[in-house]
Fold:
Amino acid sequence: MKDAMRAKDSARLGAIRLLQAAIKQREVDERIELTDADVIAAIEKMLKQRRDSIAAFESAGRTDLADIEKFEVSVLQTYMPQQLSEEAINQIITQVIADTCAQGAKDMGKVVGLVKPLVAGVADMGKVSALIKARLS
Structure:
């Protein structure tokens, strides 16, 4: 935040302040101090909101607003842990499918339920779900 202030980068500073406000709001609402996992979950939620907004703005032809949201996504991504590669995700999915003896699409919920805690914060769950669905169908 201080670097953004010193560089007079108001767009980056605004995105960082939004993140801090979201974290502080959750701490105040729930009367707890957030753990690292909780902070990552808050960032993921903000990223999902921004991606939804980008899609809505682009479909409405508002590229100026979509560009602002894209910049905020890039700033928020810097605070996320290193993402797993698709190969690593596939290895985890393969292991869980083997452990659960999942047969088809009817077992997708069970597989997703076991994979989600393993990749939380280090993989996009939409992408993971698509990979699981492709593997089970």
Summary: Residues 2-77 form a domain with the Hypothetical Protein Yqey; Chain: A; domain1 fold (CATH 1.10.1510.10). The chain has two domains: 2-77, 86-136. The chain has a mean pLDDT of 92. The radius of gyration is 18 Å.
